[in-house]
């Protein structure tokens, strides 16, 4: 549907309580109005509605006044045209619509409507003829609520995007606007209060000569993360890459820290290569500011960070942690609370209002109650609340959220009793953390029983969830789930992020910790965890990989990656039977997003227990194991699977698996120089996948093209590779397009079309302008660049490109793709003959030292 495009004007954020005017007749759409109200409040917006039971429509002056103060118009229509008031030619329903032209409009029409009044039909027909708006149809209140929720979320995201485009245009001339890569610093939605001196001190420390590691220490909830973000925002203009933010709260094993950093900075970890080496290659080139957030549970990674600093001369690290890392290079900066001093006598309002802690409370209280102001009566109570909470910002914010219901005096009285009753936290927690625990427990304790139950249930999620996920895991109806999410968000215990795909909810880490403790003590914990795993299993299996939109689905799974890991771990512990099918689907995501080492670990774990699987599951596991073995260069494991793959049709009647087995065989056989057998298998796989219209169609076509190229059938190969490049573009799969274009470039070199080859090579690494090119496809491009360089008489450049390809493979634990090994060996021999053994080895050694970025540049220069 269309909305009024008010250029460059952004809708206010949900925290500012955007107002949504709901227009409809009252009696016939009562259930629908209630459903819409719930959908609006679930997004933390304010519905503007009239439930004046004595009248068929509210007075004209009243709805006009409220409409003038609203930000979005929602119109609901069914059968009745509505009441026409004294002195009016149209009903209030139509008058509301005509008055709403200056704000975005969302319109919904209930069907069927066998008794729709003529004037309403005429109104709808006239408005549709004008082309200004279109209607979405619905049948039930639940369907309407879902439509309204999704449309409002999309509308908000569009408006924020418009505002962002204005900001981007204004910043286009700044140096930061030209910096490559995407911003990783989180965008904060509230102001940082009382940290001006801390920001200046930490920024100055990081600018000091010789200071390359600063750790912000302090208790949970003191504001270390917010301070780190503010410091990074101040300094990011001094770093070519900007500042890179790496959240680590969901990581529990120190060994996973470096892979997480690699994922954020866009470094691909392939094969057995150490994550430290991958990061050194990625970060050694230019000055970089790395912000590692929530490292306290991972201090054993300190030695790796020390090595990273030693090997990356331009790297600076800013850490947030409850404890210091105790490295010689470390400079610790304790982050203090926003303390409230003990005044010798009763201070005035102005003196209290100047305190950062009091300013913070007042600011957050106004977010939930717009008319909150500090006065001579309430300011002392606010100051005492902040003092009793030890000035911890998170605790203050949680307390301020209660201003929605309680004035400061009542809040102080309740807080005092609650803290006294709770006592200290567990003895193994730092003393300073016990106050935060008490604060969070107090806030959670104010919830109703069903709200507390929902909060504990939601702790099973990692890094967020959707309404649908919460509904499935809680086992509650969707409307009830929305109500509870709204209550929890109103208590500041659940956060809401409005995205293009609808609202996504999250939970503060400290709140989640307490909620998880509550869940651990519940009798139904196992059921909650089982429903979580089942939901994400169904999400994968029901979606499967679409023939198109592969990039879109890869992005979706990247958002849900932490929840997916939790689900896989659950199945590994309780029921491995579904995992082979999940792996078969997720392999494409793992390949596109560089998660192959992790995928191999999951597959190996399940393979050790494969005897417990049925034949179909073993077949799927065999396929995934074979193709991932080829990816990481494990030829022995791949070859050992060939006979089993050939025998699959006799054991499993499944056309997809039969074609998949042929595809795997076609990838493996070139390792033993059986190109004819590989071509037969690849052609069989391609024919099968064409009949089924499945995602592996493009991979089969790429394989056929690659084998034909290896056999010297260039024109046949060209036809298949052109098809693959187009499929990759249509699927949003840059891996496919890069692989196809690099091999097409080789064909053009052989044909003497060097300019065409250059263009294809540039296109093959074009993705590197936004994301890192996969190592495997980059080596394809490097070999084609060597072919081009040799054809132009630049044998030294050819040797360097070959050296770069070999260096990348060696560091990643890979070998040349089996179907390309013979041709590449011939190319190596020709270049070596052209240069002579000594010069060739020297040039290869230079190329082998190339970093990933330098290798991409080498291809572009070709």
Automatic annotation (TrEMBL):
<dbReference type="InterPro" id="IPR011990">
    <property type="entry name" value="TPR-like_helical_dom_sf"/>
</dbReference>
<dbReference type="Pfam" id="PF13271">
    <property type="entry name" value="DUF4062"/>
</dbReference>
<protein>
    <submittedName>
        <fullName>DUF4062 domain-containing protein</fullName>
    </submittedName>
</protein>
<dbReference type="Pfam" id="PF25872">
    <property type="entry name" value="HTH_77"/>
</dbReference>
<dbReference type="InterPro" id="IPR027417">
    <property type="entry name" value="P-loop_NTPase"/>
</dbReference>
<dbReference type="InterPro" id="IPR025139">
    <property type="entry name" value="DUF4062"/>
</dbReference>
<feature type="domain" description="Winged helix-turn-helix">
    <location>
        <begin position="447"/>
        <end position="520"/>
    </location>
</feature>
<dbReference type="InterPro" id="IPR058852">
    <property type="entry name" value="HTH_77"/>
</dbReference>
<feature type="domain" description="DUF4062">
    <location>
        <begin position="19"/>
        <end position="98"/>
    </location>
</feature>
């Amino acid at each position: 549907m269309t909305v009024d495009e008010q250029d460059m004007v952004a809708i206010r954020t949900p925290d500012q309580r955007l107002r949504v005017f709901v227009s409809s007749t009252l009696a016939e759409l009562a259930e629908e109005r209630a459903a819409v109200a719930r959908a609006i409040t679930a997004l933390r917006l304010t519905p503007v509605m009239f439930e004046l039971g004595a009248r068929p429509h509210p007075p004209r002056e009243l709805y006009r006044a409220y409409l003038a103060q609203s930000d979005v118009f929602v119109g609901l229509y069914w059968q009745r045209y509505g009441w026409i008031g004294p002195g009016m030619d149209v009903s209030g329903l139509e008058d509301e619509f005509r008055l709403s032209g200056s704000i975005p409009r969302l319109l919904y029409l209930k069907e069927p409507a066998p008794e729709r009044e003529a004037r309403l039909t005429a109104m709808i027909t006239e408005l549709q003829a004008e082309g200004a708006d279109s209607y979405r149809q619905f049948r039930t209140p639940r369907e309407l609520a879902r439509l309204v929720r999704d449309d409002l979320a999309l509308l908000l995201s569009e408006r924020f995007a418009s505002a962002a485009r204005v900001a981007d245009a204004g910043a286009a001339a700044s140096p930061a606007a030209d910096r490559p890569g995407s911003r990783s610093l989180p965008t904060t939605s509230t102001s940082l209060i009382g940290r001006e001196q801390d920001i200046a001190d930490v920024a100055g420390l990081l600018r000091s000569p010789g200071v390359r590691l600063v750790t912000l220490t302090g208790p949970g909830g003191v504001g270390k993360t917010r301070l780190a973000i503010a410091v990074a925002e101040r300094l990011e203009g001094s770093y070519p890459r900007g500042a890179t933010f790496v959240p680590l709260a969901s990581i529990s094993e120190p060994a996973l820290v470096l892979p997480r950093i690699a994922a954020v900075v866009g470094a691909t970890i392939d094969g057995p290569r150490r994550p430290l080496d991958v990061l050194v290659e990625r970060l050694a080139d230019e000055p970089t500011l790395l912000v590692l957030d929530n490292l306290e549970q991972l201090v054993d990674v300190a030695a790796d960070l020390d090595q990273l600093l030693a090997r990356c001369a331009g790297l600076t690290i800013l850490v947030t942690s409850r404890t210091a890392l105790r490295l010689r290079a470390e400079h610790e900066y304790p982050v203090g609370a926003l303390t409230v001093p003990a005044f010798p006598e009763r201070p005035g309002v102005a003196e209290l209002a100047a305190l950062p802690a009091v300013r913070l409370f007042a600011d957050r209280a106004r977010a939930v109650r717009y008319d909150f102001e500090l006065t001579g009566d309430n300011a002392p109570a606010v100051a005492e609340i902040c003092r009793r909470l030890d000035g911890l910002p998170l605790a203050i914010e949680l307390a301020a959220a209660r201003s929605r219901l309680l004035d400061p005096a009542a809040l102080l009285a309740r807080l005092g009793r609650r803290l006294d009753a709770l006592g200290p936290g567990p003895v193994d927690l730092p003393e300073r953390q016990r106050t935060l625990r008490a604060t969070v427990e107090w806030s959670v304790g104010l919830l109703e029983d069903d709200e507390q139950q929902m909060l504990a249930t939601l702790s099973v999620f990692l890094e967020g969830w959707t309404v649908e996920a919460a509904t499935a895991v809680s086992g509650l109806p969707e409307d009830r789930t929305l109500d509870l999410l709204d209550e929890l968000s109103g208590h500041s215990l659940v956060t809401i992020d409005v995205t293009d795909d609808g609202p996504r909810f999250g939970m503060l880490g400290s709140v989640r910790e307490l909620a998880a403790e509550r869940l651990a003590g519940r009798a139904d914990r196992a059921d909650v965890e089982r429903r979580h795993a089942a939901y994400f299993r169904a999400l994968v299996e029901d979606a499967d990989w679409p023939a198109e939109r592969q990039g879109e689905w890869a992005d979706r799974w990247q958002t849900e990656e932490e929840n997916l890991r939790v689900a896989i771990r659950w199945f590994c512990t309780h029921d491995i039977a579904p995992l082979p099918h999940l792996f078969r689907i997720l392999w494409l995501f793992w390949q596109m997003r560089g998660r192959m080492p992790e995928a191999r670990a999951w597959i190996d774990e399940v393979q050790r227990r494969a005897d417990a699987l049925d034949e179909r599951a073993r077949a799927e596991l065999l396929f995934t194991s074979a193709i991932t073995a080829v990816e990481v260069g494990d030829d022995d494991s791949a070859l050992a699977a060939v006979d089993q793959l050939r025998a699959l049709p006799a054991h499993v009647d499944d056309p997809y698996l039969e074609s998949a087995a042929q595809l795997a065989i076609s990838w493996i056989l070139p390792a033993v120089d059986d190109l004819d057998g590989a071509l037969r298998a690849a052609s069989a796989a391609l024919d099968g996948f064409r009949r089924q219209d499945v995602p592996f169609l493009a991979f089969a076509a790429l394989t056929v093209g690659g084998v034909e190229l290896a056999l010297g059938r260039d024109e046949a190969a060209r036809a298949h590779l052109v098809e693959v490049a187009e499929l990759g573009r249509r699927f949003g799969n840059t891996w496919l397009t890069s692989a196809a274009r690099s091999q097409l470039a080789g064909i053009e070199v052989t044909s003497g079309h060097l300019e065409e080859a250059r263009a294809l090579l540039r296109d093959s690494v074009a993705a590197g302008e936004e994301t890192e090119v996969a190592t495997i496809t980059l080596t394809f491009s490097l070999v084609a660049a060597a072919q081009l360089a040799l054809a132009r008489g630049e044998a030294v450049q050819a040797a360097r490109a070959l050296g770069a390809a070999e260096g990348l493979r060696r560091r990643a634990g890979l070998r040349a793709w089996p179907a390309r090994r013979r041709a590449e060996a011939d190319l190596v021999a020709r270049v070596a003959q052209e240069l002579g053994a000594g010069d060739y080895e020297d040039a290869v050694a230079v190329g082998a030292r190339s970093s990933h970025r330098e290798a991409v540049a080498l291809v572009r220069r070709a």
